[in-house]
Design a protein that fits this description.
7 strands, 7 helices
């Protein structure tokens, strides 16, 4: 591993990199992570060297942030993930984002076609609301969502507030 500190990266980069790493590697083991955090707090370590990821020197911020991600990762924000070919679903995504922001809900919006799946997984993990939008292909959502769903499942978050939206086509049942 490499030694890393939020002081070297800046708080925003530190949190984004840590969050993305946690989402893909550690989130499925959140209960075990919480037990390890409790133990680490008792030991008050000056250097943390996990078997995966970066080493942290004299940095309690990583312990606090991991505890948040393991126990209650959701912030009061929404993540919209959409796929659109002719921009109609994209237009709907912008309208939804605008309405949420009028209600004071910070909203991040991503086009599935050009987004990193791990980053989308991490954004959805830390969002109170997850909103998915797709155009219809025959009678279903766009197949790119099939690549996203296993990543979202790894988050193992029960009870997340979700919504779906989309445009439909001419096929029966769409």
């Amino acid at each position: 591993g490499t030694e890393i500190s939020h002081e070297l990266l800046g708080d925003e980069d530190f949190e984004e990199l840590t969050r993305d790493y946690f989402a893909i590697v550690m989130r499925p083991f959140a209960l075990q992570v919480k037990k390890a955090i409790d133990k680490a707090k008792e030991l008050s370590p000056s250097l943390i060297c996990p078997s995966h990821g970066s080493a942290y020197k004299n940095d309690t911020k990583i312990i606090d942030y991991y505890e948040k991600l393991a126990t209650n990762p959701e912030d009061d924000k929404a993540t919209i993930i959409y796929y659109s070919i002719w921009h109609s679903t994209e237009h709907m995504a912008h309208e939804i984002k605008e309405e949420l922001e009028k209600k004071g809900i910070k909203t991040n919006m991503f086009n599935l076609a050009d987004s990193n799946l791990v980053h989308l997984m991490a954004e959805s993990m830390t969002s109170k609301y997850l909103i998915l939008g797709s155009m219809t292909i025959a009678t279903s959502y766009h197949p790119l969502f099939e690549a996203l769903f296993p990543f979202l499942k790894l988050n193992n978050q029960k009870g997340k507030k979700t919504a779906v939206f989309g445009t439909h086509g001419w096929a029966p049942g769409s």
